[in-house]
Design goal:
By secondary structure, the chain is of the alpha+beta class. The protein is built from 14 helices and 16 strands.
């Protein structure tokens, strides 16, 4: 029997059966524990917990996984190498109050993420539990009409810009930035901006205490003015001997604010985006931040078409504690995927060594007029599971979480996806977001049982 995350927390007895086929008993577990005390590893183990184990409420499920739509159980996260342990340690530190900086998560995806529906739901749930560390990343570009963010204002004079993306709007220099889109202009007055939400009912997104602005330094680059709340605060020169990531920060009083970039017309200015950051809700806890990095038509091959040095510098600055990768239909059309996927995973870890990564398999889809899953999507799901194992990352089967073979049909009939059997609407995204949260909660609870010291002493170096 292969031990997945929950199994690891129950000890070796839980991962085996007796010779007569009966399940292990509590006495078996106790015997295993006693034997383990005599092993060299046990003798070298650290002393008893430096603080009390997390209470049950601290590891309670983050969401309720209703069986009213999807009848099958939520699949567990496959992580035999325990690669998510550093992320769970940081999560435990947030629960204990020992963390001194926000926990930051990035979610890479294709058109299903350009709407921010699924990340937006995760952001609201996690920030309600752990504290609002700010909305996170917003690209200052709009290559597709579907690109938007929940609980934030994002706009620009887009006809005045040339919009770039490695999938649909190619740039010869490959300078798209780590979020895979950019906007460039040399027209006087061309502007792009991001601001806190104007929805007074929004539970998150109403405050920012710092903007982190990313742009491109380049030969023959021009300058632009940064405005905070429509007042000029800084002129930025982008001319440089070579391509380089430019990063500027702007501190503001915690509250509603807007950051606007205005091109001055003396050369090309390429904008990547900005992050809306906070120290945590009310300043009393660091909180959590979800960066939604969706790009239309994205696949693993196109992720290798991005200039590496610029992307690495930006990723290092964002200092993620977890990166989730969820790519769907576009992967199905561009074989082979294995080496492209492994190359991108290696790129992430070059920028952020030992980075925990969770690969999600693609969602389900069917060919027109059929009721069974498209064989190509089944093959991609299997391949991504294999890639995750080979690359030492965790894996979650999104298609199985939907209900498995042909499950997209039920989603579409209920209005949870478009009739294209590909794109999730708000309700479908929330449903699948909850199922992902249930699996993460299960894995976190297992980690906390296995490591009662988790979060006792936070290691918070790295993020600004």
């Amino acid at each position: 029997m292969t031990c997945l995350v929950p199994c690891l927390a129950l000890g070796s007895a839980a991962c085996r059966t007796k010779k007569d086929g009966a399940p292990p008993t509590a006495e078996d577990a106790a015997a295993d524990a006693a034997r383990s005390e005599d092993t060299p590893a046990a003798k070298e183990a650290p002393p008893s917990a430096a603080c009390a184990p997390l209470e049950a409420a601290a590891v309670a499920p983050l969401a309720t996984c209703s069986a009213s739509v999807v009848k099958t159980p939520v699949p567990e996260i496959v992580d035999e190498g325990r690669s998510l342990a550093p992320f769970f340690d940081r999560l435990a530190a947030l629960e204990r109050g020992t963390a001194t900086r926000p926990l930051r998560v990035a979610i890479y995806g294709d058109s299903n993420l350009t709407s921010d529906f699924l990340p937006g739901h995760l952001r609201r749930v996690l920030q309600a539990r752990y504290g609002d560390a700010g909305h996170g990343w917003v690209s200052l570009s709009k290559p597709w009409g579907s690109y938007r963010h929940e609980d934030v204002v994002h706009a620009g004079f887009w006809p005045m810009f040339k919009l770039y993306a490695p999938t649909t709007h190619l740039a010869g220099d490959k300078q798209y930035g780590f979020a895979n889109m950019a906007a460039e202009s040399n027209e006087i007055g061309a502007s792009a901006w991001a601001a806190t939400t104007k929805d007074a009912k929004a539970k998150v997104g109403q405050s920012v205490a710092r903007f982190e602005l990313h742009y491109l330094k380049q030969p023959r680059g021009g300058s632009f003015t940064v405005q905070i709340d429509r007042k000029d605060v800084r002129a930025i020169e982008t001319r440089a001997p070579a391509f380089e990531a430019g990063i500027e920060t702007f501190e503001v009083d915690d509250g509603p604010h807007e950051l606007r970039c205005v091109v001055r017309g003396d050369g090309k200015v390429r904008l990547f985006g900005t992050s809306l950051d906070r120290t945590g809700e009310g300043g009393d806890k660091p909180g959590i931040q979800i960066d939604s990095l969706g790009a239309g038509a994205l696949n693993y091959e196109r992720l290798t078409w991005v200039a590496k040095e610029t992307r690495r510098a930006q990723l290092a600055r964002r200092a993620y504690d977890l990166v989730v990768i969820w790519l769907g239909m576009n992967v199905m059309f561009v074989p082979p995927n294995r080496e492209h996927a492994k190359e991108f995973i290696a790129e992430l870890r070059t920028a952020l060594p030992s980075l925990p990564i969770l690969v999600l398999g693609p969602g389900d889809t069917v060919k027109k007029g059929e009721t069974k899953s498209d064989p190509r999507i089944v093959a991609v799901s299997k391949q991504m599971r294999e890639v995750a194992a080979e690359a030492g990352t965790a894996f979650w089967d999104f298609r199985e979480a939907m209900g498995g073979d042909g499950s997209i049909i039920g989603f579409t009939k209920r209005g949870l996806t478009g009739r294209d059997h590909i794109h999730f609407g708000p309700e479908g995204s929330r449903l699948m977001g909850d199922r992902l949260l249930c699996s993460l909660s299960s894995a976190f609870a297992a980690h906390a049982r296995e490591h009662p010291n988790a979060g006792c002493a936070a290691t918070d170096a790295g993020a600004p």
